[in-house]
Amino acid sequence: MRRTPSDAPARYDRTTPIGLGAQIPPVLLKFVWDSGGLKNGVNQLVQAVFRTSDERSLTFTTVRHSSLRMDLAHLSSADVRQRSAQVATVAVTVAPSLMSGLLQPIHYRRDVTHKALADQSLPLVQFVARPGIIDLAWGHPDPELLPVDALRQATARVFEKYGADALNYGFAAGPGPLIAWLCRRLAEVDAHAARPDELAITAGTSQALDQVATLFATPGDVVLVEDPTYHLAVRILRDHPLELVAIPADQDGLRVDALQETLAQLRNQRRSIAFLYTIPTFHNPTGASLAGDRRRQLVDLAANETLVIVEDDAYRELSYDGPAPPSLWSLASPGTVIRLGTFAKSLAPGLRSGFISADPKTIGRIVDSGVFDSGGAVSHFASLVVAEFAATGEYAKNVDRLRAAYRARRDALLAGLSEHLGNGARWQRPAGGYFAWLTLASATPAGNLRDAAEAAGTSFLPSSVFYLDGHGGDQSIRLSFSRYSPSDLSEATRRLGNAIRLTR
Fold this sequence. Notes:
Strand order of the largest sheet: 2-9-8-7-6-3-4-5
Shape: globular
């Protein structure tokens, strides 16, 4: 007997060996069949996938990687075009007469070619826009704030000034013009100026952390990380693999007393400790900065214990209420701290350019490594563009512009939280960076609140993803204010407030 879509399962089943992505087409088709077809276009089709699921783990990423990926990727692009004044309405109708497990072709605007649709089916950036959702889960910049024209002009000047050398293998430590400028810039934004032999150019913080883990740790070593911490740094460290041990943090940052106790325990067990990974300034996810007295205590403890500190200093330039605190690197004795810096937040993440500041011996080990010896500088051309952009004063102007924009966005987010959440949560005012950290007053787990928030049209990252055990801080959430306008952020807080009230 021939099966119809009504024979398909009504919901997703986590107990079967069939992945959620593979279950999406037949389950969605049953929804379409039973509801008599879809009449309201792209948003209804996408939302149908989620309404047929009780799984919090069924995310938009799962949908995009299902066997419907090509269609949904097209739909997302079409929906974005739909919201533009230059584009006509995209109508999608799935007839209830479908008798197979495949959706029939979806009709798009007549002036969109198959080649254009095919090109758009392959992702270009990480960010995935979900129709109708102001998604505060993403720690990404607003594309409107990226200095496209100024970087285009800087790129042209690089070719005029350096010609073919801009495209050749670069000097291992990085292009001299950028290193020379960095020495001057760090003297302005930190408590200690760097010398050229204390700097190496990287392809951003992620590459730098991976390189440090490769060179200064052995598989099975212990790496200490504050809890909560940047969840994707955890992934990088676990790739090596290393044993991660959590050190608790509070509103003033890493608890140095807890670190001292953990070090004593690990030393007694004769464990090999590679380093401590920490984000002491404008922390991701909490937005907090390590208190001044703790900074000094931390670097002194590290020196006494011969503990290397890997300092993730990604947000130093984005300070909104005065200068950023001095880096651990600027306070510590040589050889204690390896500081990772980046231009991803202060300029543009797609450039993949950053730097390491450390003592000359550590820098020498990095630039003499096989990767640098084989390919030269890991970000030669892009770093020349950064150097040229900075040489004309554009970098400083851009940082000032970003500080003003993100300060306004932070203030809009916090004002909206005060207006729409009231006593429903508590939070600290971040003095820099991208993020605000909320602790909910109710006992509703953050994962459950996210379901309600997405139904209301906003989203966030629950605290569980930032804890090593995946269970810490069940009543906390991270909100990013970097990508959306102040008005969008205000609306997002209104939607979040509605979701909190519904889940009490």
